[in-house]
Amino acid sequence: MTPFFAMSLLFSLTFGQTASLCAPSEYIIHVEKRECAYCLAINTTICAGFCMTRDSNGKKLLLKSALSQNVCTYKEMFYQTALIPGCPHHTIPYYSYPVAVSCKCGKCNTDYSDCVHEKVRTNYCTKPQKLCNM
Fold it and tell me: Whose CB among 15, 35, 53, 134 lies 3.0–4.6 Å from 69's, allowing a Cys bridge?
């Protein structure tokens, strides 16, 4: 094996591992209800990272299913429920949220994922904040 080939192989294996970095990542969700006195800051894990994808130049020649791009999404997850403090008795004070156990690069499933990333920052509190460590 030539030194050039060996270096090329080593580079492609290293780049391939770092380029497809998709893993559980710590994240804080801010949850509040209009009727409740507090905003709840929840520590959880979400799937985040970069997945290799390709944009074909022959878009008109391929089926739409061949054009879908991979995203970093849940492989394994479970739901946890938190109690929002300061809610009146007539309000349901519970909030359920996903916790990522493992992640994968794949097609985005709208049944349990938000497949559109908006630029507007909406994850903040407008009320006094309470921290929830689950």
Answer: 53
